[in-house]
């Protein structure tokens, strides 16, 4: 019984990894807009608009909250995204977000997850310094 459960868990992990690789290699993914998130027209973009969720603000806020929750659980809140010492952990958080919230799978390199994490960690790390 225990061995069967172990194999089942391994198969689930393999499927998830394969699915993740298919997501990354997939076609028709939405590319990251040019510029920086949160900047004015011409210099960047609003994440909600670039994700196509302008008219679905409740969904956007739900996803943003979910990303913040993952960050609080797993990452060093005193550091920016670039300042995170454990880069593999950052990738795990991004992967977990894609597994839990399928909407993130349609974006190239999971850029909304990265942008939301970067924005949140930047604000959190500034608060920690005060």
Give unreliable regions as ranges: none
Q: Share of helix among residues?
A: 55-70%
H/E series = HEEHHHH
Cα(first) to Cα(last) distance is: 54 Å
Give the overall silhouette: globular
Q: How can the largest sheet be summarized?
A: 2 strands, parallel
* Major β-sheet strand ordering: 1-2
Please state the structural category.
mainly alpha
**Could you report the average pLDDT, rounded to the nearest whole number?**
85
| Number of helical segments with 4 or more residues | 5
Radius of gyration: 16 Å
Please tally the β strands and state the result: 2
Tell me the layout of helices and strands:
Elements: H1 2-25, E1 36-37, E2 44-45, H2 47-50, H3 57-74, H4 87-100, H5 111-129
Parallel strand pairs: 1-2
Helix pairs in contact: 3-4, 3-5
Q: Would you kindly provide a written description of the structure presented here, covering whatever features stand out?
A:
By secondary structure, this protein is mainly α. The chain has 5 helices and 2 strands. It has helices spanning 2-25, 47-50, 57-74, 87-100, 111-129; strands spanning 36-37, 44-45. A two-stranded parallel ribbon has the order 1-2. It is globular. The model has no long low-confidence stretch (mean pLDDT 85).
From the structure above, extract its key features.
single chain; 130 residues; mainly alpha
Question: In a few lines, what is going on in this structure?
Answer:
The protein is mostly helical and 130 residues long.
């Amino acid at each position: 019984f225990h061995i069967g459960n172990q194999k089942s868990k391994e198969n689930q992990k393999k499927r998830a990894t394969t699915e993740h690789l298919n997501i990354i290699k997939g076609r028709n993914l939405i590319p990251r807009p040019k510029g920086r998130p949160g900047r004015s027209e011409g210099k960047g973009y609003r994440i909600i608009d670039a994700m196509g969720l302008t008219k679905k603000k409740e969904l956007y806020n739900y996803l943003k909250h979910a990303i913040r929750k993952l960050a609080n659980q797993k990452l060093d809140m005193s550091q920016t995204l670039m300042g995170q010492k454990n880069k593999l952990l950052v990738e795990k958080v991004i992967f977990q977000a894609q597994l839990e919230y399928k909407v993130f799978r349609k974006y190239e390199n999971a850029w909304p997850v990265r942008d939301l994490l970067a924005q949140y960690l930047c604000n959190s790390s500034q608060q920690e310094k005060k």
